[in-house]
Structures are given as C-alpha cells and as structure tokens.
Design goal:
Blueprint (H helix, E strand, L loop, with lengths): L1 H62 L2 H5 L3 E2 L4 E2 L2 H30 L5 H16 L2 H27 L14 H26 L2 H9 L4 H12 L1 H17 L2 H6 L17 H8 L5 H33 L2
Antiparallel strand pairs: 1-2
Helix pairs in contact: 1-12, 3-6, 3-9, 4-6, 6-9, 7-8, 9-12, 11-12
Amino acid sequence: MASSTGESIRFAKRSIERKVTTESIFDRGFFWLTLAMAIAVAALLFWIVLQMTSSAWPAIQTFGVWDFISRTTWDPVQNIYGILPQIYGTLVTSFIALLIAIPVGIGTAIFLTEDFVSDKIRTPIAFAIELIVALPSVVIGLWGIFVLVPFLRPFFAFLNNTLGWIPLFAGNARGFSLLTLGLVLSVMIVPIIISITRGTLAEIPPELRQGSMALGATRWETLLKVLIPAGLSGIVSSIMLALGRALGETMVAAMLVGNSNRLSASLLDPGSTIASLIASQFGEAGRTQVAALLYAGVILMIMSLMVNILAEIIIRKFQNV
C-alpha cells in the first residue's frame, strides 16, 4: 500500500515537472518571438526613414534645410522648391481640427461613460461614432465636395462681407479653403478622441467616483476635479494621436484645401498642405521634383515624430503627478 502511494507521488511529481518544463519552454519561446517582432517593427521604421532620406538626399544637398522650409515658391519648371506655405497649411488646418474636435470629443466621451442616458441611446451613438472611423478618406472627401462645400459657401460669403476687414476672413469664400479642410479633419479625428477618452474614463476605478460623491461632491465636480485629472494622460494621448492623423491626412486634404501654393492669413483662401502637395504632384513629377517631394515627406515625418515625442513627454509628466 505504501509502495503504491509512493509511486503515485513520484508520478505526480514527474507530471508537474514536465508541465513546468513545457510552460517554461513556451514562455521563453513567446518572449523571443515577441522580441523578434518588436525588433522587426523598429527595423522596418528605420528602413523606411533611411530609404526616404536617401531618396530625398539630392534635394537636401541642392536646396538645403533653411531655404527649403522658408521659401514660398514651388516651381518645377525653374527647379525652385520651398514648402513654407505647405507647412503653414498643415499646421493651421490641424489646429482648426483640434480646436473643434477636443471639446466635442471629450464632451461626447463623458456623455457616453457617465450614465447621463440609458444604454438604448448610448449604444447607437457609440456605434455611429465607430462607423466614422471606418469610412474611407475618399468618401469623406466626396461628401465634403458635394455636400459641405455648397453648404458652407453662403456662410463663408457672409463672413467675408461682414468681417472681411479682419485678415482671417478676407478670403475669396469659394468653399475650398483651409477652414473647410480643418472642419472636415475635425470630423475625421473626433472619433479617435472619443474612443480613447471613453476607454480611459471607463477604466478609472469606481472607488474614485464613489469616494468623491461620498465627500459631498456633485457629479460635475467629480467629473472636473477627480475623473478628468485621473484620466488626463489618456486624454492627452488621444489628442496627440488625433493630431498625428490630422497632420498626415492626404486624400481629403488634396480634395478640399484648394491646392494653392500661397501663404495667406485668411482661413477662407485656398491653401496647401504637405500631404496634399505630395498627392497632387507625385504622379507627374520629374527626377528633381520627386526628390523634392520626398524631402517634403521627410519634413512631415519629422513633424509627426516631434508630435509623438511631445505626447510621450506630456503623458509621462501627468503619470508622475
């Protein structure tokens, strides 16, 4: 009887040892597999940057850095290239988009997470917001051309007639403008802010809400003084991701911005962005122009990289508070 019990114990020990060995092998294999995938992603990014830079190197040597980003002339006939209007258009349209999308996105996320209405209302709204992300850019661009631009023309004309003495509204008011692109970009990036902010607020421990309410705070005091500060890193992350989308949007920019290579203070004037410049001219470009367009793409990558670095700094700052 004792011998049978000993054999059972030894068999159980061997089974446990085999299981532990199998799990250890699986853990090591999973670790090295994920490490290899992470290195591959980093290597792919480095390869893209290297290829872009090497292809743009002739333009970098010819036009330099300061001249290329400070000139306002883009003339393939005379081989004079400068992207200051495109940098200006990219930054202005992204700023307009964020100016609209941040309050709308954060407000909608709060509405969808804080039980202001029942699930029967919240669920269709959340589903519709997610559908906007799935819409192709070209479809949104066509909606902008055939629906939004005709709708906005009377308003732009009114702004031009009444506030035309202000440089921001002294444009031609035809509809294809920096302001139009900024409005459409806000529609495209607001679901990003809503989704990430909603997830951030939903992950906040319920004890924070309950504790705030128990101390006598109202719902709005809890939102503004407890929940939003607690989820600020996620909110800032959503804003920075949305900004990266706005900076790099190509098709909608090419269709709605007007593609005018000029530097104008008016938001009602047509303009250009770096992405729209590349999309509209790459197909017909010669060798030198291709190098200049790739150089513009490198500048756009640097701008996006700076946004991501800034986002990381801000997020770490708020996480350490």
